[in-house]
Design brief:
This protein is of the alpha/beta class and about 325 residues long. The protein has two domains: about 1-145 and about 285-320, Isopropylmalate Dehydrogenase, CATH 3.40.718.10; about 150-275, Isopropylmalate Dehydrogenase. It is about 35% helix and about 15% strand. It has twelve helices and twelve strands. It has an eight-stranded mixed β-sheet with strand order 3-4-2-1-5-12-11-6. It has a four-stranded parallel β-sheet with strand order 7-10-8-9, sandwiched between helices. Helix 7 packs parallel to helix 8. It is globular.
Length: about 325
């Protein structure tokens, strides 16, 4: 079996991501990793951040993936002009981030068995409302339709039908075809990469799955989708009322829960697992994972950021098929 390659796009340069990565690189987990890890980003900036954070790691600067070494912090350099290790988040880093993604996606296009991890970016500064989130941005750059966001923990994963969408527009995204397509992609991912047929629950949109309207989203869209999927041998239940679903006795019965909107499922899963979860994008030609945290500028330089999500991401990649 060939050694797996993990490509990490460093993302927003003014974030806690470098600190979080360094905590992983200085752990026993990295010493035991079987994959080759390659960073895409500024060699000079990361060196400055290593000094600023008072670490002693050495970077292995390489020209392409063929020169990567195991148990080394390999990095393919992307030019970036900066004045100090960390600055305020602004539009100045946009071209650099774009260049990092271009290079990373170019490399993966030649080898889709590579797993991509992207560091956090500022939606306000980098995406500028052109895309709801980085999930849709990468899907657009790879000509992928209808990507699925899965916030994964081995005990319970959640998937919002709509991602970073204003709440007053959510009902427009509750469609039978979208529910069916998302569930099939998640089911296939679990079977092919995790090696199990998942038990899936689908939440309703309305409180208690009830509506004062004659025809609710549950009756018109969700129930027909669940019936279709059940007939096609998907292990699925629903719609289930969201207000009581996340009780311990309920979540122990399922592997995945499909929510109708972002905070319906992300709020409880982050309460349950904190940073012990990862954001997996399903529906791309390759596996993409984002650690479940943002740039967190307020914590830069304090060396107090929780690195759990990057540990979870890299350990997860090491175990999947």
């Amino acid at each position: 079996m060939n050694t797996r390659i993990i490509l990490i796009i460093l993302g927003e340069p003014n974030s806690t991501f470098s600190e979080i990565l360094l905590k992983y690189f200085n752990s026993k987990n990295f010493k035991n990793i079987s994959s080759k890890v390659i960073l895409i980003g500024s060699f000079d900036l990361l060196n400055e951040q290593i000094k600023f954070l008072k670490y002693k790691n050495k970077l292995n600067k390489i020209l392409d993936v063929n020169h990567a070494l195991k148990k080394k912090i390999n990095i393919i350099d992307v030019n970036y002009k900066f004045n100090k290790a960390f600055s305020n988040i602004s539009d100045k880093s946009n071209k650099y981030i774009e260049d990092c993604f271009k290079l990373g996606l170019k490399i993966i296009k030649k080898n889709q068995s590579i797993v991509l991890i992207n560091g956090p970016i500022s939606k306000e500064n980098f995406l500028k409302k052109k895309f709801p989130g980085i999930t849709e941005y990468v899907a657009n750059k790879t000509n992928s339709k209808d990507p699925v966001m899965l916030i994964y923990n081995k005990s319970l994963a959640v998937s919002p039908l709509s991602t970073h969408i204003p709440i007053n527009k959510v009902s427009k995204y509750v469609k039978k075809t979208k529910i069916i397509n998302n569930v099939i992609k998640i089911n296939d991912f679990y079977k092919s990469k995790i090696g199990k047929k998942p038990k899936i629950a689908v939440l309703g949109l309305n409180p208690h799955c009830e509506s004062i309207d004659k025809i609710s989203e549950e009756k018109k869209q969700i129930i027909p989708a669940v019936k279709y999927l059940f007939k096609n041998k998907i292990n699925i239940s629903g719609p289930v009322a969201a207000d009581t679903f996340f009780l311990d006795k309920n979540i122990r019965k399922f592997d995945v829960v499909i929510g109708m909107y972002h905070d319906q499922v992300l709020t409880p899963v982050k309460t349950l697992f904190k940073f012990n979860a990862i954001n997996i994008t399903i529906g791309l030609p390759f596996i993409k994972i984002t650690p479940d945290h943002g740039p967190n500028f307020e914590m830069i330089g304090k060396n107090k950021s929780d690195p759990s999500s990057i540990f979870y991401a890299l350990d997860f990649i090491n175990k999947i098929k």
